[in-house]
Amino acid sequence: MNTGVLRKRYSYIDVLNILAIFLVLMLHTSQAIFTAKVGTSLFLQVRMFQGIAIPAVFLFFMISGAMLIDYRQRMSTTDFFKHRIKRVLIPFLLWSILWYFYDIKWSAYPGPISHPHPSVSDFLISFASTNINTIFWFFYVILVLYLVTPMLSALVKLKEKDYLFLLVSIYVIINCFILYPLEVFKIQITNNMINFPLITFCYLGYFIVGYLIHSGFFSKKQEDLLIIVGFIMFFIQVFFISLGKGLNLDMNNSTGPIVFFYSVGLFTLVKRIMEKINLNSRFSVLFKTMASASLGIYIIHPFFIGLFDKIFSVNEMSRLHIYIFPLMVYIVCLLFVLVIKKIPGGKYIFP
User: What are the residue ranges of helices labelled H in the chain?
Assistant: First the structure.
């Protein structure tokens, strides 16, 4: 989500924000993948939706890296952490509490988890184990990435981007070409000492490569290659994995080369397209406004999915739920978040 301050506005970042949250909604309204009978038409449809939308949160990690790794050009490290606390940590804690109380009596899907026996200890245990709202895993990951950002930013200040590229390369080699094949072929080895170091943390690669693409580290030809590889991975993801039969590949594996390069290619493609479009000020403001609501939409959308299910008397197996809800939920959540942000104190509820 867009969580930066005091920086130049990039329209392509706003568009990626909007695209990413819409893909999140596609993922969360195609949960019939877990209940539909394998091999049926409905199962293949939602599996394809899942395959198309899988870059969703990884785009957010790349956006965050693009906007934050060079923070030293705009603020001190102390100010950086103050802004992260205000814009991410506090809303995370607030909404964890609100969802916990909501989960005591009501339900929503996906994300919120029922807590029929509430207590302080139950809250603390649930919070520590991401069992208040499972989609809040994003916050746990992004907060860890914030902790290592000062070290990454120091490399930028020293003009040592090659070391950032080295970190991404190590990430790709270990996660995409060692750990992922082991999982695909179900080879059991003791690999704790491989995947434990922070440089192989399975989301750090997305965070750093977002900055490298944004900062122009790659040449035009190299970006072209990233886009081409991304297209190939998209094709494999959607047509061979999502709709294919007999392929024992985890299409949602964040450490696999298919998802990683599909996400990177999509990020690069949107950047390339938006840089060629001369947006007038009206559209720039529109995209900026829509992008500013992405974090709020992420936080609140399970409530509206559940509400619409009740209003229309449908469930996750309904075509209405799968095909129409993403747009409906996006529009309603967007308006809701923007209205709340306008009221006094609203920016602390939906930063």
Answer: 11-28, 41-53, 56-68, 77-84, 90-105, 120-128, 137-157, 161-171, 180-184, 192-195, 204-214, 220-235, 257-276, 281-292, 294-312, 319, 325-342, 346-349
